[in-house]
Write a structure and sequence with these properties.
With 382 residues, the protein is an alpha/beta fold. It folds into two domains: 2-138, Rossmann fold (3-Layer(aba) Sandwich); 145-379, Rossmann fold (3-Layer(aba) Sandwich). The chain is built from 13 helices and 13 strands. The chain has helices at residues 19-22, 27-40, 53-66, 82-91, 129-143, 191-199, 218-230, 232-239, 253-264, 289-296, 300-307, 333-344, 370-379, and strands at 2-7, 44-49, 69-73, 95-99, 121-124, 147-150, 158-162, 170-176, 203-207, 241-251, 271-275, 318-324, 349-354. The strands form two sheets. The protein has an eight-stranded mixed β-sheet, sandwiched between helices. Strands 2-1-3-4-5 form a five-stranded parallel β-sheet, with helices on both faces. The chain is globular, with a radius of gyration of 21 Å. 1,3,4-trihydroxy-5-OXO-cyclohexanecarboxylic acid is lined by residues 10, 73, 75-76, 99-101, 103, 110.
């Protein structure tokens, strides 16, 4: 696949320009990381930075012949340039828009992107790693294009369905992404897991849900994930889904949501798999205070018990908790304590600890340890 990496105005100043907002990496450094990531995925990358709208438009037109995907940081043009919107639309090359900073939490005018509607996806607020996630997203949507279906009226109430080649009926893996319930992190994080697991013969249902801020909050996020699992029912006949073999798989904060969805959804899963899950919020440590407070809002104390998986045991289904020993984000102790408590409460549960594996490795088919993760994800539905 040929990927065009386009950077718009002022991005040549990366590293020097407002490092507190955009970080210290230079544009050359970013381009180097993108080259390495593209090569790893087997793709060729071409790059251009320009401060001129017309030059960017012409590069997008040329991409019709020369690229299969575009990763585009339009800079401030994204807030104003209908001409760039039209160029992306006319070129019809799948384009992922990326912003390094969290444009939704800055000046109100940055919240609007006029270019986004022409793009297949937008990534923002993840720092420079957003560029790599954008390349991954292009890679996985080409490897196995999803069917995106809505399960509610809100734009975040959608999920990607991928079906195996076999005639079915298919077991189903519901994937719930993490990201601390916050706005910048979306289901593209689970693209790799979705494509890999589908290739192993299970249908995947990679769900989006409302997050915080500005919408969402614990009630909305939890209701959405539960509704998304229930939404398998009306589509099961057409897509030959076997609703007796549904597993809910959640990563990080998505494991918190997945656990409750497994308990409350109208479709009852046979198993729950936590990948580096946040499963014992009461003892997760003060480093998570800001995330938990944003998720629970003002009534944190009153509601912590209602959203804490370890306090809601037994689940009534089998549980596998997978955790990398090198996880520097969510402590492996979360999984250890949860499995101990769920066994004590009578759920068939087990722990899979993986040496040399970190927080994001457990959702990456490219990482060491993935084979064990994939086996754990599929074990319940076989
Ligand atoms: C930016 C965000 C834009 O609002 C800003 O004008 C930029 C950079 C980002 O990457 O965060 O130039 O696109």
């Amino acid at each position: 696949m040929r990927i065009l990496l386009l950077n718009g105005p002022n991005l040549n100043l990366l590293g020097r320009r407002a490092p507190e907002v955009y970080g210290s990496a230079t544009l050359d450094g970013v381009v180097e990381q993108c080259h390495a990531h593209s090569t790893r995925l087997g793709h060729r990358l071409e790059t251009l930075q320009s401060n001129h709208e017309g030059e960017l438009i012409e590069a997008i037109h040329a991409a019709r012949q020369t690229a299969d995907g575009i990763v585009f940081n339009p800079g401030a043009f994204s807030h104003t340039s209908y001409a760039l919107h039209d160029a992306i639309e006319a070129a019809d090359v799948p384009t992922v828009e990326i912003h390094i900073s969290n444009v939704r939490e800055r000046e109100p005018w940055r919240r609007i992107s006029v270019t986004e509607p022409a793009c297949v996806h937008q990534i923002f607020g993840r720092g420079v790693s957003g560029y790599l996630d954008a390349i991954s997203h292009l890679h996985y949507r080409r490897a196995h294009p999803p069917l995106t279906l809505s399960y509610g009226p809100h734009p975040d109430q959608v999920a990607d369905l991928r079906l195996p080649e076999a005639p079915g009926p298919h077991p189903v893996a519901v994937l719930v992404h993490g990201g601390g319930w916050t706005d910048p992190y979306t289901r593209d994080l689970m693209d790799g897991a979705a494509v890999d697991l589908t290739g192993r013969g299970t249908a995947t249902w990679n769900i989006e849900y409302r997050r915080v801020p500005p919408v969402g909050g614990w009630r909305d996020s939890m209701a959405d994930v539960s509704a998304a699992v229930g939404a398998l029912s009306p589509i099961s006949h057409d897509h030959r889904l076997d609703l007796d073999r549904v597993t809910v798989i959640g990563h990080s904060a998505g494991a918190q949501l997945g656990f409750f969805a497994a308990r409350t959804a109208s479709v009852r899963p046979v198993g729950f798999v936590s990948l580096a899950g946040m499963l014992d919020l009461g003892s997760i440590g003060s480093g998570f205070d800001h995330l938990i407070s944003a998720f629970l809002g003002d009534d944190r104390r009153a509601h912590l018990a209602e959203v804490d998986p370890i306090k809601a045991l037994p689940g009534g289904f089998s549980t596998v908790a997978v955790h990398g020993r090198r996880d520097g984000s969510v402590p492996p102790d979360q999984s250890r304590r949860f499995v101990e408590a769920s066994l004590a409460a009578g759920d068939p549960s087990h722990l899979v600890e993986l040496e040399g594996v970190d927080h994001m490795d457990v959702i990456s088919p490219l990482a060491a340890g993935w084979e064990s993760v994939a086996q754990a994800c599929l074990a319940g539905s076989e």
